[in-house]
Write a structure and sequence with these properties.
The complex is a heterodimer. In chain A, the strands form 4 sheets. In chain A, strands 6-7-8-3-9-10 form a 6-stranded mixed sheet, sandwiched between helices. In chain A, strands 13-12-11-14-20 form a 5-stranded antiparallel sheet, with no helix packed on it. Chain A has a 5-stranded antiparallel sheet with strand order 15-19-16-17-18. Chain A is α+β, with helices and mostly antiparallel strands. Chain A is built from 9 helices and 20 strands. The relative contact order of chain A is 0.11. In chain B, strands 1-2 form a two-stranded antiparallel sheet. The longest helix of chain B is centred in the first third of the chain and has 34 residues, at 73-106. The chains are: A alpha+beta, B mainly alpha. The structure holds adenosine-5'-triphosphate (ATP) and magnesium ion.
Chain lengths: 355, 569
C-alpha cells in the first residue's frame, strides 16, 4: 500500500447524545480509493460515526479531515460525499431519471448533458431503459441500484452507505455485494459502508473497522480480522470460535486444563494469569501432529452441508470443543457419535485473551 | 497500512457546527412566521390581558374590574350557566359519538359511508344554523313543538341540542380514530377466551379508546363553552359567558368588562386544552405500538341495532339541515307555505346583502391560500430546520396556543391591539386583511398539527439526500416535500376554507362596513327578526362548503391517482 496521505482522517471523535456517549474517542484513517466497512452489533455507533463523517449529526469532540481539509464543522451541503440510506430515501414522486438527475440539475448542466449522464449512470448500475418508472414500481434491489446511481451522480469524493443491503433478501444481497464492489473498484471512489453482517464485511471490504459500544475494537483487512482477532470481542463476533479456559505455563506454553499446549505467534497477555485460549473449529485437525495432540471423543455431530460440525469432549477437560470436519473426511473415517479420535490444535492457530 | 491509534487524545473544545446557508435561510423564514404569530396572537393577547386591569381611560386600576365583575350576580351567574351547558352537551355528544363510532367501526352495518358523510354535515354550517332550525321546529309556532311538552326551546334545551349538533362531528372524528387504532389482537384474544361481547366491550374496547374518549370530551367541552352562535340564536334570556362578552362589547361598549369575561372564559378553555394535549400524547404512544387493524365479522342482530342507531342520528342531523332549507324556501312561515326564492334576495334586507356572501368567499379564499402557505412553511421550517432550539420550542408553543383561545377573545384582543391609535398596523382595522389574519390565527393549531404530522411521516433522510446532492433546501422543498405532502396540504386548505366560511366569533368584532360576512349576516338578520333570510344565507354557506368539499374530494383523488404510481406501496 502506498505511503500517501490518508484521504479521510478522523481524530479523537466523541459523540454524545445528552449524557449518553455513543462514540468515544474514535480515530481512524482511510486511504484514497479504499473500501472500508464499519462492522459491529446493533446500537454500537456505526451509523453515528457515518453521520458524523457526513456532517448530518456533527460530533461533540474531535475532528474530521477529508482530502487534507478540516471539515469538522461544515454542514453536509458543504462537504463532498454521496450517501445511500438503508431506506434508500428515493423521492417517491419523481421518476427514476429525475431521482438520479436530481443532483446534476444543480450543476448548471444542460438538460441534454443531464440526460446523457443519467443514462450512463443507469447503465452503470445495470438498469438501462428503466428511467421512466417510479421508485414504488421497482423491486428492493432495483431501488438500491437507483439510490446508488443517484449518490454517485455528482462524482463525490466519498461514498457513504448505511446498511444498503439489509432490506433485501439473501440471494439479491449476495448478487449486489459483487456489483457494488465492482462498481467501487471501477470508479475508484473511497467508500465507507456500515453493516452488521460480518459476511458482507469480510467479502467486500479492503479493511474492516470493528466497533463495539462506541469504541473501535480493531481495524484490519478481512484476513487479519478473521485470523488475528485483536480482542475477545472481535474473536467472538466474527466467525465461530472455541474459547477454552487456560492458564499461563512456563516457557511460552500455556495449560488448558492439565494439558500443556504450545502457542506460536502470540504474546501472553500481560499480567493476566487466567486466560482464554481461542481456536476456530475449522483449525482443529484430525490425526496425530507434531505437538498439541489430545484424545477426544465425538459427542454429537451436526451436518452443515459441505462440512460437519462435531461437538467433542477431550482429555483437556475444558468443556465442549467444536470442530469442523469436511464431509469427505467424516465419511472416510466413519466418524459418528461415540467415535474416539486423536486431534491436533496447531500452535499457530491458537489466540490468547485475558479471561 | 495506516495504523489506528486509540490513544486517549485530549478532546479539546467541543465542536461547534457551522450553519449552512440553508440553515440560515430556513431560520429566517421561521423567524418571519414567528413574528407573524407574535403580532397576530401574542401581542393582542397581551393587550386584552392588560386591558382587563385598566379603566375606560386606560389607567391601571388593578383588580377593580374583576371585583366589579364578581359583585355583579347577573354576570357571574353566566359562569354556572356556561358550565352547565358545556357539561350536559359533553355527556350527550360524546355518548352519541361513541356509540355511533362503535357501530361504524365494529359492525358490518350497511351504508357506513353515507352515515359518515351525513355525520360531517354540521362542520359545513355556522353554529347559528341549528338554532334557526330549532325555532322552526319547536318555536312558538314550531312544526312539532308539542314534542317539548310545554318546555321552552329558547334557553338551555335549545342551546344543548344545537351544541350537540355542532360538536358531534368533532367528537366522532376523534373517537373513530381512537377505535380504529385499537389492536385486533386483543379482540382475538378475548374471543379465544370465550369472553362475551359485553365483557369484551368493557375490558377491551373502553380501555383501548379511553384517551380518545377523554380527548373528545375536552374538545366538545371547549367548543361548547366558547361557542357563541347557538346561545345567541336560541338562548333566549339564558346568559352564558360567550354571549356576555358580545353584549358587553357590542351592546354596552364596555370593553374592559368584555376583557374580564374573556379572561374568565379563557380559563376553562385553557385547562381543557392542556388536558387534551396530554391525552393526545398518550394516544400517540398507543398508536406507535404496532397494532393490527380490526376486521369486524357479521352479526345480524348487532349490525341491525347499530344500523338503526346510525339512522336515528342521521335523521336528527338531516332534519336540522332540511328544516333550514325549508325555512329558506317558503314565503311566510307559518301563514303562507308556498315555495319561493324571495328569502335569497339578501340585498333587500339589512345584514350586508349578497356582498357579504362574496366577502365571505373572498375571506375563505385568502385564508385557504395564504393560511395554507404560512402554516405549511412554518411547520416545515420548525420541523426540518436545525439549531436554535429555544426559538423552535417557542414557535411550537405559539402554534398550539390558538386552540386554547376562544374566537370571541381573539376578536376582542384584536380590537384592543389593532385599533390602538399608536399601533402602526392600525390601517388594517376594518379591512379584509384583518379578517384574513384573525381567521388564519384562530384556526392555526389544527392546520399546523396536520402539516407536522404529514412532515413527520416523510422519510427523514430526504433533506439529507438533498444536501448531499448540493440541492438548496427550497428546491428539495418544492420538488419533493410539497408534492409528497400534497394530500395534507389540500386537507389544510379545505379546513381553513370551510372554517372561514362558517366562523362568527372572531370576526364579529372585526368586520367593517365594507367587509360584512355571510356568517355575520346570518347573525344580524336573525337578530333583526329576518329568520328566513338568515336560514337562506346559512344554506348559501352550506352549499358553498359542500361544493368545496366535493371539489376537494375530487382533487385529492386526482392527486392520488396521478401519483398512484408511487403511493401504492
Ligand atoms: N439522536 C439520538 N439521540 C439519542 N441517542 C441516539 C441517537 N442516535 C443514536 N443514539 C444512540 O446511539 C447509539 C448508537 O446508535 P447508532 O444508530 O449509531 O447504532 P448502529 O450501530 O448504527 O446500530 P444499528 O445496527 O441498529 O443501526 C444507540 O445506543 C442509539 O440508541
Ligand atoms: Mg445503524
Amino acid at each position: 500500500m502506498s505511503q500517501s496521505e490518508p484521504y479521510l482522517r478522523i481524530t479523537g471523535l466523541t459523540k454524545k447524545f445528552g449524557e449518553f456517549t455513543a462514540l468515544s474517542d474514535v480515530s481512524l484513517e482511510v486511504l484514497e480509493g479504499e473500501f472500508i466497512c464499519f462492522l459491529g452489533p446493533s446500537g454500537c455507533g456505526k451509523t453515528t460515526l457515518l453521520r458524523a463523517i457526513a456532517g448530518l449529526d456533527i460530533q461533540t469532540y474531535g475532528s474530521v479531515e477529508q482530502a487534507g481539509k478540516d471539515i469538522s464543522e461544515l454542514p453536509p451541503a458543504e462537504r463532498d460525499f454521496g450517501i445511500v440510506f438503508q431506506s434508500y430515501a428515493l423521492f417517491p414522486n419523481l421518476s427514476i431519471e429525475r431521482n438520479v438527475g436530481f443532483g446534476l440539475e444543480n450543476l448548471g448542466q444542460s438538460s441534454e448533458q443531464v440526460k446523457k449522464r443519467v443514462a450512463e449512470l443507469l447503465a452503470l448500475v445495470g438498469m438501462p431503459e428503466q428511467g421512466r418508472k417510479y421508485p414504488a414500481q421497482l423491486s428492493g434491489g432495483q431501488q438500491q441500484r437507483v439510490a446508488l446511481a443517484r449518490a454517485i451522480a455528482i462524482s463525490p469524493g466519498l461514498l457513504l452507505l448505511d446498511e444498503p443491503l439489509s432490506a433485501l433478501d439473501a440471494k439479491v444481497r449476495v448478487k449486489l455485494r459483487h456489483e457494488i464492489k465492482q462498481l467501487q473498484h471501477k470508479l475508484g471512489i473511497t467508500t465507507i459502508m456500515v453493516t452488521h453482517d460480518q459476511e458482507e464485511a469480510l467479502t467486500m471490504a479492503d479493511r474492516i473497522v470493528v466497533i463495539n459500544n462506541g469504541l473501535i475494537e480493531q481495524v484490519g483487512t478481512p484476513e487479519q480480522i478473521y485470523r488475528e482477532p485483536a480482542t475477545r470481542f472481535v474473536a467472538e463476533f466474527i466467525g465461530a470460535m472455541n474459547f477454552l479456559p487456560a492458564s499461563a505455563g512456563d516457557g511460552g506454553e500455556i495449560r488448558i486444563g492439565k494439558t500443556p499446549v504450545r502457542v506460536q505467534g502470540v504474546d501472553l497477555p500481560e499480567g493476566a494469569s487466567a486466560l482464554l485460549a481461542a481456536i476456530r473449529p475449522e483449525d482443529i485437525r484430525v490425526g496425530e501432529g507434531v505437538e498439541n495432540c489430545v484424545d477426544a471423543r465425538v459427542e454429537s455431530v451436526e451436518f452443515l452441508g459441505p462440512f460437519v460440525r462435531a461437538e467433542l469432549s477431550s482429555e483437556m477437560d475444558a468443556g465442549p470443543l467444536y470442530a469442523d470436519f469436511s464431509a469427505n473426511l467424516v465419511r472416510e473415517q466413519s466418524l459418528a457419535r461415540g467415535s474416539e479420535l486423536r486431534i491436533t490444535l496447531p500452535a499457530d492457530s491458537i489466540r490468547l485473551y485475558p479471561a | 497500512m495506516t495504523a489506528t491509534t486509540a490513544t486517549a487524545a485530549p478532546r479539546g473544545r467541543p465542536v461547534r457546527a457551522r450553519s449552512s446557508r440553508d440553515d440560515r435561510q430556513m431560520l429566517a423564514f421561521m423567524g418571519v412566521i414567528m413574528l407573524y404569530l407574535v403580532i397576530a396572537l401574542a401581542l393582542p393577547l397581551y393587550a386584552i390581558l392588560s386591558k382587563s386591569f385598566q379603566n375606560k381611560d386606560g389607567e391601571f386600576v388593578g383588580l377593580a374590574n374583576f371585583l366589579e365583575y364578581f359583585n355583579t350576580p347577573a354576570l357571574t351567574h353566566s359562569i354556572q350557566n356556561s358550565l352547565t351547558i358545556a357539561v350536559i352537551t359533553t355527556l350527550i355528544s360524546v355518548s352519541i359519538a361513541f356509540t355511533l363510532a362503535y357501530g361504524l367501526s365494529r359492525s358490518c352495518m350497511r351504508f357506513k359511508g353515507t352515515f359518515k358523510v351525513i355525520a360531517m354535515v354540521p362542520i359545513l354550517v355556522p353554529s347559528l344554523l341549528p338554532g334557526i332550525a330549532l325555532v322552526y321546529l319547536f318555536g312558538r309556532q314550531g312544526m312539532i313543538r308539542e314534542l317539548l311538552f310545554g318546555h321552552d326551546i329558547y334557553g338551555p334545551i335549545g342551546i344543548v341540542i344545537s351544541e350537540v349538533f355542532f360538536t358531534l362531528p368533532h367528537a366522532l372524528i376523534i373517537i373513530m380514530t381512537a377505535l380504529s387504532i385499537a389492536d385486533a389482537r386483543l379482540y382475538e384474544a378475548a374471543e379465544s377466551l370465550n369472553a362475551s361481547k359485553l365483557r369484551t366491550f368493557f375490558t377491551v374496547t373502553i380501555p383501548g379508546a379511553r384517551y380518545g374518549l377523554i380527548s373528545a370530551a375536552f374538545v366538545v367541552f371547549t367548543l361548547t363553552i366558547t361557542d357563541f352562535g347557538a346561545p345567541k340564536v336560541i338562548g333566549g334570556g339564558y346568559n352564558v359567558l360567550a354571549t356576555d362578552i358580545y353584549k358587553q362589547v357590542i351592546g354596552q361598549q364596555n370593553f374592559e368588562m368584555g376583557a374580564v369575561v374573556s379572561l374568565i372564559l379563557l380559563l376553562p378553555a385553557g385547562i381543557a386544552f392542556m388536558v387534551d394535549r396530554i391525552m393526545q400524547r398518550k394516544q400517540v404512544a398507543l398508536l406507535s405500538a404496532r397494532a393490527v387493524a380490526y376486521e369486524p365479522k357479521p352479526s345480524p342482530l348487532f349490525d341491525w341495532i347499530m344500523f338503526a342507531w346510525a339512522a336515528v342520528v342521521s335523521v336528527f342531523i338531516l332534519t336540522i339541515l332540511l328544516t333550514c332549507q325549508y325555512a329558506a324556501l317558503i314565503k311566510f312561515f307559518p301563514y303562507n307555505l308556498s315555495l319561493s326564492l324571495k328569502n335569497y334576495q339578501f340585498d333587500l334586507m339589512d345584514g350586508g346583502g349578497w356582498a357579504s356572501f362574496y366577502n365571505s368567499l373572498e375571506l375563505a379564499g385568502w385564508t385557504a391560500v395564504v393560511g395554507t402557505a404560512v402554516v405549511f412553511l412554518g411547520a416545515y421550517m420548525v420541523e426540518k430546520g436545525k439549531g436554535f432550539h429555544a426559538g423552535r420550542a417557542l414557535f411550537q408553543f405559539l402554534a398550539m396556543l390558538p386552540m386554547a383561545v376562544p374566537g370571541l377573545v381573539l376578536g376582542l384582543a384584536y380590537i384592543f391591539f389593532f385599533n390602538a391609535p399608536d399601533n402602526p398596523f392600525n390601517f388594517i382595522y376594518h379591512t379584509m386583511a384583518i379578517l384574513v389574519i384573525s381567521t388564519i390565527t384562530h384556526f392555526y393549531t389544527v392546520a399546523h398539527l396536520t402539516a407536522v404530522t404529514a412532515l413527520k411521516q416523510m422519510d427523514p433522510e430526504f433533506e439529507a439526500v438533498g444536501a448531499s446532492l448540493k440541492s438548496p433546501f427550497y428546491r428539495t422543498f418544492s420538488r419533493v416535500t410539497v408534492p409528497v405532502c400534497l394530500p395534507a396540504i389540500l386537507d389544510i386548505s379545505i379546513y381553513l376554507f370551510v372554517n372561514a366560511m362558517t366562523t362568527v366569533s372572531a370576526v364579529v368584532f372585526l368586520y367593517g362596513p365594507q367587509t360584512s360576512l355571510a356568517s355575520v349576516a346570518v347573525l344580524n338578520m336573525d337578530d333583526a327578526g329576518d329568520i328566513a333570510p338568515a336560514a337562506a344565507m346559512g344554506m348559501m354557506i352550506f352549499y358553498t362548503n359542500a361544493g368545496m368539499r366535493i371539489v376537494h374530494g375530487l382533487l385529492s383523488r386526482g392527486v392520488l391517482r396521478k401519483t398512484q404510481s408511487w403511493r401504492n406501496r
